[in-house]
Amino acid sequence: MVLPLASDGLTIEPVDDRNDGTAIRLVWKGRSSARNPGELLVPYFQGVFDWAVRSGRVTVEMHFERMEHFNSSTVGALIYLIQDARGRQVPMVFVYDQKLKWQKLSFDAMRVFVKSDGLLQMRSV
User: Fold this and answer.
1) Which of 9, 70, 96, 105 would bridge 32 by S-S if both were Cys, CB 3.0 to 4.6 A apart?
2) Which one of 3.30.750.24, 3.10.20.740, 3.30.1360.40, 3.90.550.10 gives the CATH number of domain 5-124?
3) DSSP letter for each residue of 81-103
């Protein structure tokens, strides 16, 4: 079971709208402006990835469409999470709003981490 996370204007809420066990869907909301967001995000996502592995390597879907802002330190933490998930063979999908310029720029830059192994996908809405 994945629990919600809330801290300093950022919330991450698990949403179980599929009920088919194929994905852990996490909706990011608010702002991530912490100087070192990895201190919060890394332990949380280590638990999420552990749960994904125990559940049969279900996909971790992160939905950023409702994010208002995240800073470059958050991008660094996301890159660390990409590498951690890949090392555990946990597939991830990042879903973002390409109409928001800051999201388009941030996620376009992270596309360099999409490999032919299919463990990371970027999807725009």
Assistant:
1) 70
2) 3.30.750.24
3) HHHHHHHHT--EEEEE-TTSHHH
